[in-house]
Amino acid sequence: MKAKIGILGASGYTGYELIRLLALHPGVELAYLSAGSSAGQKLGEVFPDLVADAEMRLVPLSEALPIPVDFVFSCLPHHESMEVVPKFLSKDGVKAVDLSADYRMKDPKDYEKWYGKAHSSPDLLKEAVYGLPELNREAIRRARLVANPGCYPTSVLLGLAPLLKEGWAADAPILADSKSGLSGAGRTPSLKTHLVEAEGSVAPYSIGRAHRHLGEMEQEMKKLGGKGCRLIFSPHLIPMSRGILSTLYVKTKKPVGKTELQDLYEKAYAGEPFVRILKNGKPPETKAVKYSNRCDIGLTPLEEDALILITSAIDNLVKGASGQAIQNMNLMLGYKETLGLPFQGCAN
Amino acid sequence: MKAKIGILGASGYTGYELIRLLALHPGVELAYLSAGSSAGQKLGEVFPDLVADAEMRLVPLSEALPIPVDFVFSCLPHHESMEVVPKFLSKDGVKAVDLSADYRMKDPKDYEKWYGKAHSSPDLLKEAVYGLPELNREAIRRARLVANPGCYPTSVLLGLAPLLKEGWAADAPILADSKSGLSGAGRTPSLKTHLVEAEGSVAPYSIGRAHRHLGEMEQEMKKLGGKGCRLIFSPHLIPMSRGILSTLYVKTKKPVGKTELQDLYEKAYAGEPFVRILKNGKPPETKAVKYSNRCDIGLTPLEEDALILITSAIDNLVKGASGQAIQNMNLMLGYKETLGLPFQGCAN
Amino acid sequence: MKAKIGILGASGYTGYELIRLLALHPGVELAYLSAGSSAGQKLGEVFPDLVADAEMRLVPLSEALPIPVDFVFSCLPHHESMEVVPKFLSKDGVKAVDLSADYRMKDPKDYEKWYGKAHSSPDLLKEAVYGLPELNREAIRRARLVANPGCYPTSVLLGLAPLLKEGWAADAPILADSKSGLSGAGRTPSLKTHLVEAEGSVAPYSIGRAHRHLGEMEQEMKKLGGKGCRLIFSPHLIPMSRGILSTLYVKTKKPVGKTELQDLYEKAYAGEPFVRILKNGKPPETKAVKYSNRCDIGLTPLEEDALILITSAIDNLVKGASGQAIQNMNLMLGYKETLGLPFQGCAN
Amino acid sequence: MKAKIGILGASGYTGYELIRLLALHPGVELAYLSAGSSAGQKLGEVFPDLVADAEMRLVPLSEALPIPVDFVFSCLPHHESMEVVPKFLSKDGVKAVDLSADYRMKDPKDYEKWYGKAHSSPDLLKEAVYGLPELNREAIRRARLVANPGCYPTSVLLGLAPLLKEGWAADAPILADSKSGLSGAGRTPSLKTHLVEAEGSVAPYSIGRAHRHLGEMEQEMKKLGGKGCRLIFSPHLIPMSRGILSTLYVKTKKPVGKTELQDLYEKAYAGEPFVRILKNGKPPETKAVKYSNRCDIGLTPLEEDALILITSAIDNLVKGASGQAIQNMNLMLGYKETLGLPFQGCAN
Fold first, then answer.
1. Which residues of A are catalytic?
2. B245–C contact, CB cutoff 8 A
3. pTM of the prediction?
4. How big is the A-B interface in CB pairs under 8 Å?
């Protein structure tokens, strides 16, 4: 029997990507799609390429609530999501993945610091599991509520995890210089996503210690590394639709050689279906993971400087959002982890 | 002494382009820039690349009105422009170019048909001169108010004019299949200009007999051709910032050969500084006119079919809007027609 | 048992797309990939995003020939393909789809006219079936050799077929104004596909009666319409990777109304899995068919002018090449026609 | 009297940009354009948008040599340039700017290390002046041969100079994470510049200690900072035509505050016509310097970490190549430094 799925906030890019991917998933069927201002429209009007359920009408949240489902994805904005997710979870047996930032921080004070508002369901915050399957698989399987990681954190944490776990990083700030496509800025039109403004331009923003994802990344880095990891984070907007490339600079306690580093990463991700460690110092390109749930990682140790450069590429809407959300759902519903998920991308 | 210039509605793309080009014009100085919601901001905040007058503050229309000027450019939207332009023209000696559609139609009924509202200053409508200098130079020189042509009409009319004037077109609808960059859709963010929506897609819109520029084009075609010219017009949005390429299909009374056609066009535009007739059947590309006030025209006669294909390329913001407006201003103020205007573009 | 597949000329874009799509096809397995200068390289080196068979090595044609297969796709250039395809077909039971132009023209004289060389296997030319399943399904099922249609012809013929079959077109040239992404120009680097040259530019080429696909289109139009159809064809390069949008202008014998036209097309393509007729005059956009094997068609009758505008969108590498080739293979091997083929695209 | 100018290697992007910019320069006239495989073609055939000298024919190097000139720009590739430049300089009074890397390294051993070949004119190497006017103006004025800086080095060195001169940088490697448009890869078509390969992708290359510009940058950093500066350099290809954005991470001896840092940079570049220090922590975007000879610099001190982030944006073909070459020429010929050079760019 197929699991009945509800998607909240279906008219943005993460909603789009969920619907597109779930249409190819054999274990689910859509029960409803909720939306705000797009409620009342048919799916095919909101997204003209989505043909599988083109006639399905988006409903307001209030109409969605009573419809029985097995699983809910929340693509609502932060602040909104924490008001709504508890209502769905209060029903018997319902599980959820929240794609907003609302359940990512473990400490309500950290949430308030980075998101500017007191958390309204701190108990659920405590219960929620951080949904990076490669680092946290067993807890996700047992979870009722999974906080889907941010797009930048996914690319940064997968790139850093083996080094941090092994304790090789020196006691110095780690630098993450990230380059992101514009779908990361959301579907609501704004000047910065206007093609005429964005085409042909690279634009840094919130660099240093200012971006909200910093709190989430440092929280998870600490879990991995056991002590006071500190991150300097520089995101840049790139004139393309999809993709994040993070270039990571990690000072190590002692010099690390090529073979040693390659071995560490290959072992750490051995058997992982959605991580590929590139060989021979080849760096990844975002096009090779476009439309794929894969993270490609390249390794460039600078032995003489006791410095390691790691380059990590994901599709921000797939492994960085909706693909990972489905990977989490698969684990939570007892499906095969890779079910319905694209491993191969489409570069050209 | 430099002419004092006011620009109304300065925060959109035609305003931007006027400011950018006038900064290099030796005969003018900016008296004010007016704007709606951007009023109060500095120019450098609204357009971070405009350094010449970066500290100048945009003012609301009401503050602009009393400031003395010699010349006004209105970049206001249609409907708004006709409410405002008369106030500026009522002052002694002030002249204006209106870049909106408000003064382009000669017949108030045509205005109402295509723009859905009765015209509020029909006397000025009668007085206004249609500002395509290559077809209308002497009237522009004497004008107090010039209606700057639309971007599509500029590319279509310059492509058709010699054929129509010569009376070669058969009594059959002319087809214009136009491809436009996204700056033509304006600077106000919308879903269709969102890079993620627009990148990698060609999108026809308002094709056939639906687009507002049809009225303007047929009006001017009639002036040129003397009788009932009819146009089928198919605009398409193209994933690029600037440029219009119009592919024109004209049935002729009798077959026309290569040399004959080439001669017609070269003679028609001999001495024109901003029109270039390409040779040997080479079609134009929009990149060759990017940032230039030039129109490039290519000729492909199909003698066997008594059909002529004309391809015409302009930069929609320069020859299709602000560059042409300055060309008109030069004529109206008695400057050299080419003063301050770029002939060469920047393709790469 | 899975069919064993050979792909000749695997290092270009149609080869890429075949490999990408066949990796998701449950009824086949790759026996070999042949290439010219890329022979010896691993697939993952030639296309870094193709992970399914990344370790498979491309072989020279001479090594491919003796390897037993059930089915061959030739992605070789024209002229080359007709030298090679007969060798593979001479083996017992082997069938083939040729993606080049070599087997598309029925008359060897037409081949020589458009492709500049006498045909070297005129018997096979006679035997080959033109592979547009929507028009030619039963013959394809029985074929040993299918000539896969060109990308432009696919978009134009699917747009015209119902009109032509019904005999509604007047005795006047039909105009096809097509806009194509740059993958249509092939993978061999050239100045026109250089991003710096192509970005931000629309470029017509071979317009009028000059493009090679004209012969193929008129040949098939005649089959559909019964008499002397004539086409004027204007292709344009658009700064995007994939997609063709054809805007078709057809003069009709008598005026045709909206409902009548909509009915004609909906009936003509009823039950077709890969054709979607849009409603209410909505034109298609190429993004809605990106990565999909679907053709979207929009209808704009201009009753007053006895003229019909048809807009047709495909992904040139899928329905315009490799997807259609697989659709043909499915028919030829007795598989379900839609097996392994994407109906839904990916617009964003 | 206008200076007579020769351009060697005129058919690439730096040649293009020189010709385009010099067409607007009142103090020069073109004596010849030399080229390799494009020799014999007219300028208008090689670059269809360059109309000013469209009829001028490109000549082979051997024909250029005897033509008398006052000034030569060499846009030849490295290795070739050092074979040719001495021949032109051996003539009385001729001066030159070399845009290749051949005269940038002071030590012939460094040249051999980074460029893989013994230098063929070491005396000229010694004589040549490194052409970054903001750092080296007086020496350039007196120079006979100026080595024009690389594009990456221009963006990095202008960003670092005030900090290094002041001696604030700690004894730790400086990190430069650079993002470059594809014109930096040259005009010769290659797979990596194919629009279909490059669109929608970020691709790191030669990261760490591998890129040739490293030697040039460390040489100049040492001049500025007085001792063993070390650089880690990570270039990335970005899907756009023009622009470089360098994000620089500098560890400082002691924490530096906002005001202090802003003051340092504003004083260091006070009066510089082509450097703009942004205020209030605003980072630059490449679009704001497109087609401009300006470098925009943004400052983000992280006081708590004793770390400074500097973001620096240039147009790689203007300030990063041909614009700077003209700036150098202006100094060498005694013209006003800014003559004929664009300060304002074109963002949209």
1. 151
2. yes
3. 0.97
4. 55
